[in-house]
Write a structure and sequence with these properties.
alpha/beta; 60s Ribosomal Protein L30, Chain: A; Alpha/beta knot; 2 domains; 7-stranded parallel sheet; 4-stranded mixed sheet; 9 helices; 23% strand; elongated
Length: 243
């Protein structure tokens, strides 16, 4: 079944990445904007059908009503294979993979993918069941990062962690009660960063497979960040260590 990509950044990044689109639909009467001009140009050059419809038609197609006047129709999202991701890592000493343990909110999944891609991660891994999947909301929340970063879907997170360990990754689990603080934890080199579901955190078996648990120090009254914010902080600590 075809999928929708909503929003100017998400559609533009899909075109820039060479993702095959079936058509791009604009709301009629849009004000001129450089991003819209580039979308039209790239779609035309790629042989993608471009059409204009009343805004109400896009509102009907949109999942959250935040389409910014443009929606693209594309083939179903293609997930990457974990072995292929590991094989593609060129620097054996430095790699980041973000693993999400049953994160169910697609907005959070998209935000994590965006941060991971900006930080230079090699992949985001998600479970096949009981978790958010890549779709219109995720494409939009990632600001188009789904077009650039491999997303791996696995049947078992614990088994995926074992594969990563065998490939030389240290597995760090994010936990507000983790014994290692953000500043002291070994967040460098070949790292698999694991974050748990909203509210419940890491599952017991997932926690047990982590090499260490890391906490983010807080100065306010709220005890922790949400999963997307925590992923950003931890991923960019990995970036800082590698400078």
């Amino acid at each position: 079944m075809a999928e929708h990509i909503e929003g100017r950044n998400a559609v533009l990044e899909a075109l820039r990445s060479g993702l095959r689109l079936e058509r791009v639909t604009f709301a009629s009467g849009l004000k001129a904007h450089p991003s819209l001009d580039e979308i039209r140009r790239r779609a035309t050059e790629a042989g993608v059908r471009v059409e204009e419809v009343p805004r109400q038609e896009l509102d009907r197609l949109s999942v959250r009503g935040a389409h910014q006047g443009v929606i693209a129709l594309t083939e179903p999202f293609r997930y990457a294979q974990l072995d292929a991701v590991i094989h593609a890592v060129r620097n054996p000493a430095r790699s980041l993979v973000v693993v999400l343990d049953h994160v169910t909110d697609p907005g959070n999944l998209g935000a994590v993918i965006r941060s991971a891609e900006v930080a230079g991660a090699h992949a985001v891994i998600i479970p096949r069941e009981r978790a958010a999947q890549v779709g219109p909301v995720v494409h939009k929340a990632s600001a188009g990062a789904t077009a650039h970063l491999p997303i791996v879907q696995v049947s078992n997170i614990v088994q995926a962690l074992e594969v990563l360990k065998a490939a030389g990754y240290w597995v760090a689990g994010a936990d507000e009660n983790g014994e290692a603080g953000l500043w002291e934890a070994p967040l460098e080199g070949r790292l698999a960063l694991v974050l748990g579901a909203e509210g419940s955190g890491l599952a017991r078996l997932t926690r047990e497979r982590c090499d260490f648990l890391v906490s983010i120090p807080v100065a306010g009254w709220v005890g922790s960040l949400n999963v997307a914010q925590a992923a950003t902080v931890l991923a960019f600590e990995w970036v800082r260590r590698g400078r």
